[in-house]
Amino acid sequence: MIRVMVSLDLVNAESQRDEFYKLLAAKGWTKLARVDTVWVFDKMGHTEQDERDAMADIARVLTEAAIEFKPTRIDYVAQVGNNIAIERVVEKRFSEYATFNA
Known about the structure:
Elements: E1 2-11, H1 17-26, E2 30-31, E3 38-43, H2 48-69, E4 73-80, E5 86-93, E6 96-101
Antiparallel strand pairs: 1-3, 1-4, 2-3, 4-5, 5-6
Helix pairs in contact: 1-2
């Protein structure tokens, strides 16, 4: 089992925060109760490929959310297993939302 923790900031999407959170919960993410915008989820497996898949899952879910809710951007950091934390941004470039290195 791979444990994943994601901390994110929505930029210019306050009015849609509750719906955004519902989408993440529907994808199996759990919001930690006592901190703002920190989410966790588990991914089956334990290989390096499974860890890369977990990172891709984060990018996919947050890109889907950006397409639906249209924030200016979503900044996030993630810790996947024992790997070094990553820092990324989901934003619209060239008319499409995608995930980029921060």
